[in-house]
Amino acid sequence: MRTPAFAQAVLDGRRGDMTRRFQNMIARSISTDEGNSLVIVPGMLRSGPEIKRRFAILENWYRVFAVDLKWSYQRCMDELPHALRATLDGTKYEPGARKSW
Question: pTM of the full predicted structure?
Answer without folding.
Answer: 0.79
